[in-house]
Structure formats: structure tokens, C-alpha cells
UniProtKB/TrEMBL annotation, chains A, B, C, D:
Keywords: Oxidoreductase. Its EC number is 1.1.1.18. One of its GO terms (molecular function) is nucleotide binding. The gene is iolG. This is Inositol 2-dehydrogenase. It is an enzyme of class 1 (oxidoreductase). It comes from Shinella kummerowiae.
């Protein structure tokens, strides 16, 4: 049994707590949240120690799951690493690429597993698509199309702290693009609009985005995002190869279809929201992390993956402003 | 160019006229209908001779297409055969199996093609299913499930003359069952109810039916019929084999799907009615007939097929009344 | 927390144990199995008491889950009832309708919940179909079509003890038919063949079956079964009404589709077998039982449901031998 | 009956000839092709006059269908207009925007219908999607995604004369984008690669392209193209609105699906190529043109539509080279 300390007891922290408790290989050693009421609630629900500081929580476990607010991630990664604990950190590592680089420098010599919360890599459909592509089933990969739309606009408060759509939302798709392409994107084009809530322009943010990526060898990737798809959490990945195409599509709660005078084959709305849509992915991602902790193996979603997706998000920001294709070397030097 | 005489200018006769005219290998030589206004309308529309008698029409052609009312079919088959013409006759040959047997006797020595209008055999999806099954793709055939539902109840007048659901509607499915099974059904069970229009009981008829067939080797087939499926003309054929399953499904006018807050993947109603659903089948069936006429080959849907399906319909009637499995030998002797 | 005693630690018993342990409202109080090694294994895995007799296990709990071999069900129901415990019993109650009637008599005065393991009633898709039908969404129900096929033939040993296909496998579909029709079937026709393994005829059993049911008001239901569908556990329910149709279809592990030169839209095989296909149903069925235990409410799948489905299975056996429509009153008197 | 002169008897000319002949409202008055053998073949097949010059063909008809090679389109439009004939011209009008502008100037005062061969506007699925979007069914339009892939790379000879992917292939998608968006794109980003045939780089052409368009109000559109999709002619249009999404999907020859041990729901490859996929669209487009000729109405796909799509293609070329968002005003002045 791997003893895990959970830092952060908000929506996603609670979900992780439940996942840990359900796992047969892990136990929830301690929880901490700067809002002590939140920590106490999770502690009571799952019957575990409620620590009074992150350090105290970290001390009681073999691995640390960081689900606190983004600005604290890098510090907590460093603290956990210093304590020699395996680390699972929610995305993004930080909103600043410079801070991420500094964190990487601080991790030098750290030799325990560190996994970033790119849950979609563990979704059975997405994973099967990627495995089929890697196996050569569709020949040479030529294009990847990622459709990624949330069911509804988050609160203003959330959006203000989010770092903008590319670092908050598209970052998942940048990671998925890299996962599917099997080759690093070197050029980034991004544009978008505030179509759902035009006042988002006040935050210099957008709610509808389109991105094009290009790798060194010329493979192409398109990502489209919307903060509000009324029909559910729309999560599709398509890979076009020289010998075929793969599509990992949306999921519904069940398989009922309705047939009437005006429509046939009408099925349920898509699972909504990420906690439902990616429930299996969260569980499988945690299991994979635990396996890495047990064997000291490298996770599928590494610190470097977190850093590279953030670099793509920074390139997207630069592209949107500059209205041009941005070479990733302008960002990463 | 095969010159075809069309006998019968009602709904289905008109459809056949248009199909003949569109064919590059046939021409409409003459039309006849006891209601002369109907014949004149078709003659005017397609610019062909309007005969004053069936005999006159038959005389002008190399092949005769019989689309008159059912009670005249057998007489017109005999008249056409006597004149040495190839014959395409709409189903059923007659409502009386005795009359059909007499007709068969009268055809003795006739050596030109005679095709019965079992259009579904020529539907590309159904045909592909049957060809795949015949090729061994799904191994040994074990079960066939046929769903066959009309979009709405026909007029009382039509139903009164129809011969009852098994001879009028299910007869297509009996033929399709034989086509798919690749083996003769030897036992028939049938039941049903007047659920759409309870007053159909006055005609000793039903509008909702379920049938089970069993072949000598034990293969099973289920047919379900309804006279009123509000979502379109529901036409499905399923074949279960030892190595897989084939389903030839419904067709829609186009591929639009709608996604909204209460339903996703909502597509168009099914094509409605048989003239739309089986448009390709009618054209392909006519082309196949023309090829048979040209080469004096045996059509895919023969007189014997018409007779055997009628025998199954009679067995179904006997089964419904007797509430028991009826052996086909009780009918055909 | 409802304390549950589990009797029977075979494949399905283990699955129930895991479901109980995952529930936040129940705990596994004790387990018992005549094969003590099996009970010990479950006891060790889930950390619960291993009782030396059924009585000892029953005594430690508020509710009893009976997952032993079929011949012991009725005795254990009676023992649990005598001890005043709520009861969840796997299907069938017994292979003999007489024994079931005797058990019912013995339960007279027992006023705790008793639920039969008709898990399919709790499947989200099937349940949504039935709820939509009950709500009037598709108007008057006219036909129900149930396709129910196992992925592969069970062992000879299993089949010998099974009571035959109608009592072992179709019994689930009889229950589902009653659940969907909303009206009791009064007539039963059944036939079938040993197509997968012809030597099954030695057991007077079949592996491929077709059934037709008819209710008093004339509603029709078809069930088809196969013991071996190579493409997965095929579980479909279709309801045709005057105003539309509902289909609760099959489930796949994930939403990947493949597109290549010979096929498009090729998805995963269906979930296989019942433990995977009905995983949610088992969990929801247990939750529903626990709710009933807490509030002393009547479960959705009652003892009477178990008895009525068994009566339909006996009618099916009589029909298959007699090759005729059997009125249920011939069975239930 | 509208008498139509067909100029150009290559692959697409022959297809138009067959469509004209099948129409009940039009007849093929004359055909002309600089390769007289091609004209004679069509003339013989359809029994019409074979003209020795374009002028001679034009003189014999009320309407002219121009399906010659692209460099002759503008001249033939001007000649037809001078003769006062209604005009149907295949896309593109010309590869040079300057030539198109000159042609427009030459058409000043011409008041007969002129329709450009943007067949996809007449596809029933695409049309139904656009009509639903226009009707407000999905609220405000926010994004359009167009996937448009040919089944296989055309010949080198064809590609050399094609004007490059954006003017030859994407031009259809630019037109469809404008048709769906209901608002003019003002900014264009385009990139691509020669992934299928790297030697295409010698022609300064690509075979894999991604485009992003942005309208004045911020609506976004993505187009992806490939010259070789092994699974068929992939033609999808998706419209995301504030109240839902519409997808007009691919079409298959029939509705057979296969279920086996490794895949379920495997359907036919997509219809391949445009003549099959858009057969209905070609027929409906011609019918629509004939209706416009009869009533002197403005077609759905006008000369201006042809010009605007060409301007978008030029902008795409500029964007690809400049690696930046190009404002359409840089092109159209």
C-alpha cells in the first residue's frame, strides 16, 4: 500500500481523494488544505489525518498528490522533492514558463517519479487510439484533429486566475497533441474570440479558440476549443494516417436511442463534465502513478511534458497577439 | 433495348414506368390499365403507346411487367407466357396457393425468364448481407431476425383486398428469410394482434405480427411486423452466424446529425415509404430482369420463390388460428 | 451502514462482495461457502468474518445476499426469513416452480424486503428505456424485442446443472419482458435448436432459442437467445410504441472507431461478459436493495417477479415440446 | 425544356451530360470539346449535336454548361454572356483573381443567371445543416469545422495544372465555409506539407493543408485537407452554435454493418469519389440552375461566390508563404 498525502481539497482534490480510497494499492495518509474546513470535510469523509501544514502532510506519506491552486504547485513540488517523496501534480505546473524552468533546475538529482495530471493520456479510448497509431496500424501519421469543448463557461473568478484559455484549457490539448503526434510541434498558430462572453475581452482572454501546430517533418495538428458546448463535454481526437484514420469519440451515460417522427437514433447528451467523462482516466492515471512509485519507473506524463505543453501555450499567446506562426524556439530558446 | 409492356398504372405501376424509362437498356413499349385514364396519364408522361387491352400491350413488347391488382396476376402471367414474352410480375402471384399451383402447371414448357417483384432481394445492403453470409464470412448461419414495419396503416379498402397481413406484407419477409437462411423453413409459428386499429378484427386481420420459422437443420428466423412505425419505414435484416453477425439497417435521406442539450446524434427519420427506401432496389431489380431477358437466364426471384413464400403465408394463417407450430408439408402436401 | 452476510463465494459471489465493499452504505459482515477455501479467500481479500455455517453468517447481519448454487436458494431464503433478515437472492429462486410456491407459502408474514437478482432492471440504459416507455413518451406499447446472447458456451458441467436454457438464461429476458411490457404475458411460444453444440440434445437442452409472448391485450414480445455470439455479450432491448421506438443497445469499453480501406466506423467488440456489461447494474441494484432495507420498502425485483419468470420458463419448456402456444394458466393454475 | 450546350466532354463533362439527360426539364442541345473524339463519344451516347466550335454549340442553346479546362472558363463565360445565354460554369472561374475581376467587368449589364459549380451547396446533408443553422436552431454560430479529403492523389499532370491545393481543392471548402458561416471571413491562416508525395514540393505545392478563417465578428472556421484518405472521400461539415451543433457526415453505399470478434459496427468505406458522393448534389444543382434559367432568378452559387472563394485561396497562398494571418483586404483591395 502506497501512502499518499493529498494537498488541496477543492473539487478536484476531493475527486482524487475518492480515487485513492477506491484503489486497492493506495491509502490516503493525510490531507491538507489552506482552507482548513475543506481539509476537515475530506478527512472526516475518508477517515484520514488532517494535517495542519503541507509539510506535515508530506511527512506522513510516500507520495504527494498536489491539487492545490496553481501558484502553489511549483513550491509544493520542490518541498515534496526535498522530502524525497514521489509526486503527482495537477496541471499546469505553473503559469510562468520561467518558474517551471527554475523548478526543473531545483529538481536536479531528484530520482523519484513525478507525474503531471494530464488525465486524458489515460483515457481508454484516447490511449487505444494512440497505441494503434504507434503500432503502425494507420501507417504514417499525417494529421491530428482535437476537438475539446467544455459544457459551460466557468465563473469569472475562476477565469481571472486561470492564466487564459491556452494555459488553462488548451494545455490539455497541447499535451494530447504531443502524445498523439509522436513528434514535437515546432510551429504554433493560434487565434480566437470572445463569442460566449464578449466581456472576456476585458481580461484579454477568449472563450473560442483555434490552433494549428506543425512538426519538423510537416505533420499537422488542429485544436479547436469552446468554453460552452451545450450538448456536453465534447472530447474528440482524430488521427489521420497514410493507411487509415482513428477517432476516439465522446461518451454517453448509457446506450439508449430514441426514434420518433422527427428524429431517429437520438442518444443521450455527452458525459458532462470532466469528472464524469474522464472518471476511468483519473482512476487509471492514479493506478499508473502508483505502479511507477512501486517500481520507481518514469510516468507517462512527466514534468517535461508539463513544461513543453506550457511552452506551446506561451507560443499560442504570442501567435494570437502577433497574428503569425510562432516557432517554438522563440519561446524555449 | 428490351421493349417492355407495362400492365397496371397505379402507384407501383407508375414507379415501374419511371424506372423503365430511366434504364439505358429498356424502353416502355406500351401501357395498359383497365382504368383508361390512368394508362393515358402514364402514356402522356412517358410518351408511349396506350393499349386498349392487355393483349394489345403484350403483343408490342419482348417483356411484360405486371403491376395490376393481385387477382389478375395469374391470368396475365398465363397470357404473357402464351405470347412467349418474358415476365416480371409484382408480388403476390395470387392470394390462393391453389391458383398459383394451377398457374405453375400452365407455365409448363415456358422457357422465358419470369421474375417476381421481391424487390428487397436487390437492395444493396440486404444483398451485401446475403452475399457476405453465403461467402462464409460469418460461418454457419444460426439465426435471422427481420424487422419490417410500414410507416402507417393503409386504407381500409386496401386492407380488405390485401389477403391479410401475412400474404400482403409478411410475404416480402418470408421471401427475405428464405433468401438469407439459404435453407427452406419447414415449420412456421405466427401470432399477432390488431393493436393499431382494433376494428381490423372485423376483417379477421391483424396489424402487428410476430413469426418464428425453423428450418430442417434447426436454423431459426424471427420476423416482426407492424403496419405503423411513426419514425419511418423500418427495414432491418440481421444474420447471426458462428463467426459473426451482419445487420443491413435503415436508410436516411442524408447524413445530418443534431446535437443539443437533450439529445445527441439525432438523425433524420428513416426513408419513407418503400418507393423511397427501395428506390435503388427497384432499379437494380429491373436491370437484373433485363439482363435475364437478354441472356434468357433465370432471375434471382423466381415463380417458385413466389409460390414458396405464399405457402409460408398460408402456414402462418393456419398457425395463428391453431396457435401451434405448423409444418410446411401440411400446406404444400 | 447495512451489514450484509454473503452466502456463496463463487464467481458471482466474489463480484457481489466487491460491490458491497465499494458501497458507502453497506459493509460485508460475514461470508460463508460450503467450500471453505472459497469463503476464506473472500474473507481474506475483504477483511471480514468467515462463518462456518450459513446460519452463523446470517446471524451477524441485517441482510443476506444469497449467491450459492441454485438448489440451496429456497432453503436459505427460508432460513434468512426465519431470522428476520432482508434478503437479496440470485436468480432463479429454484428450478422447480412447486418449490418456489412452497417457499412463498413459507414466507407468509415475512415483512422484510426480498429482492431477486434480476440485475438488468437496474442497467441505466434498460431502465431509461423502461422509464421513457412508462412516461408515455412512445405512446401505447405494442412490441418488445429482446436480443440476449452470451459470448460463448458455458461448460458442460454448468449446463447440466443449469435447468436448461429457459430457466437459466432466458429467465432474465422473461423478467425484462415483463418489466418492459408493463402487462403480464399470458401466452408463450418457444422453440430452439442445438446449433452450437449438437450434443446438447443429449441433455434435452438447446443453445439457440426463439420465444414469442403475448399479453392479454395483445402486446407482443420476441426474445432471441444464443449461447455463443462471437462479437461479445449482445444485450439489446427494443420497445415499439404508437408514438416511437426506444432501443437500449450494447456497450463497448471505449469510443474508439477505426476507418480503413475496407471498413469504416469499426468499433470495439461489445463488453464481455455480464460482469463487465452489467457492472453498473449490479452496483445500482445493490444500492437500490440497501435503500429498500433502510426504509423497509419493496424492491423493484420481487419474489413474485422471480416466480412469474420461472412460470414463463416452464411454459416455454412445455411449448417447445408441444410445439404450440401455451397459456400461462396451464402452468400457474 | 431548357436546351443546354455542354462545353467540355472530359470526366466531369460526361457526368454533367448524363445529369442533363436524366432531367425532365432540360435537354442536351449540343456538345463541344477541343478534343473532337471526346465530344463525338458523348454526342453518340446521348444522341445530340456535336458542334465544331464552342460558338456553334452556344448558339444552339438557351444555357451553356462550361466544363472545359480551367484556363478557358473566363473566355467561354464572356462568349456565352455575349450571346445572351444563361451560364453554369465549373469551379474555379480562373486561377488568376485579376482575370476573374476582368471577367466580372466584362459581364457588366449581363442579366441572365450565372451559376458556379459549387456542387456541395446542393448536397442534401450540407444544405439541411445550413438551413437548420440559418433557421436559428443552434443559436448563434460560433465555429465551423470542415474536413475535406480526397481518396487518393491525382496524377502529376493534373496537379501541375491545378493551380495548387488551395485553388483546386480547398476552394470548395472556402465556398462551403462562407455558405455555412453566413458572414464573410476577413482573416486567413494557412499552412501545409507535402506528406503524401514529398516531391510535390518541386511544384511548390502541398498535399496536406490546414486553414483557419476568422470573420469580422470573430466566428472561427477550420478546414483540413488531405489529398489521400484511404478510407474514401471524407466530407464532413460541423457547425457549433450557442444552442447546439450540427454535423453533416459521410455517406456510404448501403447500410450493412459487420460484427465480429475484433470489431463491431464496421460499415462500408465512404462513397468514393466526388461523382458518387455528390451525385445527388450534382443533380439538385442542375435542377436549381434550370429553375433559375426558367424564372431568371439568381442562383445559390453566384459569380461573386466564385470570386470570393478564389480571393480566399490567394490569401491562403500568401499566408502559407508569409506564415501569418492575412487580411482579405490585402488581396481584394
Amino acid at each position: 500500500m502506497i501512502r499518499i498525502a493529498l494537498l488541496g481539497c477543492g473539487r478536484i482534490g476531493k475527486m482524487h481523494a475518492a480515487t485513492i480510497v477506491r484503489s486497492s494499492k493506495a491509502e490516503l495518509a493525510a490531507v491538507y488544505d489552506p482552507v482548513s474546513a475543506a481539509a476537515k470535510e475530506v478527512g472526516r469523509q475518508f477517515g484520514c489525518v488532517v494535517a495542519v501544514s503541507a509539510e506535515e502532510a508530506i511527512a506522513q506519506a510516500a507520495a504527494v498528490l498536489i491539487a492545490t491552486s496553481t501558484p502553489t504547485h511549483a513550491d509544493l513540488i520542490e518541498a515534496s522533492a526535498k522530502a524525497g517523496k514521489a509526486i503527482f501534480c495537477e496541471k499546469p505546473i505553473d503559469l510562468s514558463l520561467a518558474r517551471v524552468k527554475a523548478c526543473r533546475a531545483a529538481l536536479k538529482g531528484f530520482n523519484r517519479p513525478i507525474q503531471i495530471g494530464f488525465n486524458r493520456r489515460y483515457d481508454p479510448g484516447h490511449r487505444a487510439a494512440r497505441d494503434a497509431a504507434r503500432s503502425g496500424e494507420i501507417g504514417d501519421i499525417r494529421q491530428v484533429i482535437i476537438t475539446s469543448r467544455d459544457p459551460g463557461l466557468a465563473s469569472r473568478e475562476y477565469l481571472k486566475a486561470s492564466g487564459g484559455i491556452f494555459k488553462d484549457m488548451t494545455i490539455h490539448d497541447f499535451d494530447l497533441a504531443r502524445f498523439m503526434l509522436g513528434e514535437e510541434p515546432v510551429e504554433v498558430f493560434a487565434t480566437g474570440s470572445a463569442l460566449i462572453d464578449p466581456t472576456l475581452a476585458e481580461l484579454n482572454d477568449i472563450d473560442s479558440a483555434m490552433v494549428v501546430l506543425r512538426t519538423e517533418s510537416g505533420k499537422l495538428c488542429h485544436i479547436n476549443n469552446s468554453r460552452a458546448a451545450i450538448y456536453g463535454h465534447d472530447q474528440r481526437v482524430e488521427i489521420l494516417g497514410s493507411n487509415g484514420m482513428l477517432i476516439s469519440g465522446n461518451r454517453r451515460a448509457h446506450g439508449l436511442e430514441r426514434f420518433g417522427p422527427t428524429a431517429t437514433g437520438a442518444a443521450e447528451p455527452f458525459l458532462n463534465f470532466f469528472i464524469e467523462r474522464y472518471a476511468e482516466a483519473y482512476a487509471l492515471g492514479l493506478e499508473s502513478f502508483i505502479d511507477c512509485v512501486e517500481t520507481n519507473a518514469t510516468p507517462d506524463a512527466t514534468f517535461e511534458d508539463g513544461e513543453k505543453s506550457l511552452a506551446l501555450a506561451e507560443a499560442a499567446n504570442l501567435s494570437r497577439v502577433g497574428r503569425r506562426f510562432v516557432n517554438i524556439r522563440e519561446i524555449v530558446g
